[in-house]
Design a protein that fits this description.
Helices cover 12% and strands 41% of the residues. It is built from 3 helices and 18 strands. By secondary structure, the chain is mainly beta. It has 2 domains: 31 residues; 286 residues, Jelly Rolls (Sandwich). The longest helix has 30 residues. Strands 2, 3, 6, 7, 9, 10, 11, 12, 13 and 17 form a 10-stranded mixed beta sheet that branches. Strands 1, 4, 5, 8, 14, 15, 16 and 18 form an 8-stranded antiparallel beta sheet that branches. One of its GO terms (molecular function) is beta-agarase activity. This is Beta-porphyranase B. It comes from Novipirellula herctigrandis. InterPro entries: Beta-glucanase-like, Beta_agarase, ConA-like_dom_sf.
């Protein structure tokens, strides 16, 4: 009788374990079902490879809260923003199947890190991935910009990496290298460049600091073409998809609504393989120093026009067949 009871308990526990594992597996399939189905829209993979979902940078933004396992609601990599707008976690929310980053006014104004001051009188938001391992692969979002003179962006970046070497004179040289890959920078209501909100604005930036004397050489920046290849629909009037295929350190293909538009080959003056390091992901609204206009109170109090909306972010890696 005791043996039979032990056997029945063991069988129940095994069944429960199998059921739990199956439920967890099914939950993952449901969570990434849309991203998996979307793989048919991706560029043709190289022979012998196939696309697979990169879960660390994929989110459908369902439910009522930001997934804290994947995202920071306020970036730890860029904490204060560019004056006159800083970043606030309270401007970040998930609602109606979208990530929403709201723009607002600060009253009273603030200094860095929320301290008293008058440096910032506006606030946007900066959502950042917790993983910093976005590397070669395909990265795409479906988003709608806010119709304001604050930006709506989707980009990758890494922290500076220190390199030490001794040159031919015997001098120790210490350099810091960093990279930024702007998949989309846009603005729903620009004034200085009125067409900017109808352009697929993408850039690569390679930054270099030389420690001796804190010398900073200019960023090595390469942008997308300034021709019809970047002409797109108004980014604030509807949702559109913007994608990047990061092929290798020297080749970046950009896609609009799933269609190839152009390639950027980053500059190699500072590094022969300029984009060979992993990055984190940023979804940010901010102010630009070159844009003279700022959002009005009418814009900032008009929900949901005061916000950038991200329907989803989906990311993929190439794996062997």
């Amino acid at each position: 009788m005791i043996k039979k009871t032990i056997w029945m308990l063991t069988a129940c526990l095994l069944q429960a374990s199998v059921t739990t594992d199956a439920w967890a597996q099914n939950a993952k399939q449901v969570q990434y079902r849309s991203a998996i189905e979307h793989m048919t829209n991706l560029p043709e993979p190289p022979e012998g490879f196939k696309w697979a979902v990169n879960p660390d940078f994929t989110d459908e933004f369902e439910g009522g809260t930001l997934n804290a396992e994947k995202w920071y609601d306020k970036s730890p990599y860029w904490t204060n923003g560019r004056s006159p707008a800083t970043f606030k976690a309270y401007n970040v929310s998930v609602e109606n199947g979208c990530l929403r980053i709201k723009n607002s006014r600060l009253d009273p104004p603030e200094g860095n890190d929320g301290e008293p001051g008058d440096k910032y009188h506006l606030a946007g938001g900066a959502v950042a991935s917790k993983s910093d391992q976005a590397w070669y692969g395909y990265y795409e979002t479906r988003m709608k910009a806010s119709p304001t003179p604050m930006s709506s962006t989707f980009w990758l970046k890494n922290l500076p990496k220190r390199i030490r070497y001794v040159d031919e004179t015997g001098k120790l040289v210490i350099e810091e290298h960093r990279q930024e890959l702007d998949i989309l920078e846009t603005m729903g209501k620009p004034t200085r460049h009125p067409d900017w909100g109808r352009q697929f604005n993408s850039n690569t930036h390679y930054g270099l600091n030389v420690e001796e004397g804190r010398q900073r050489v200019p960023n090595l920046s390469v942008s997308g073409p300034k021709d019809d290849h970047i002409a797109i629909e108004d980014t604030a009037k509807d949702f559109h998809t913007y994608g990047l295929w990061w092929v290798d350190p020297n080749t970046l293909h950009f896609y609009y609504e799933g269609e190839f538009r152009f390639t950027i080959n980053p500059g190699t003056m500072y590094n022969r393989l300029p984009f060979a390091r992993p990055m984190y992901m940023h979804l940010v609204t901010e102010t630009y120093s070159w844009e003279p206009s700022l959002p009005t109170d009418e814009m900032l109090t008009d929900d949901p026009k005061n916000s950038t909306h991200y329907d989803w972010v989906r990311s993929y890696v190439l794996v062997r067949k």
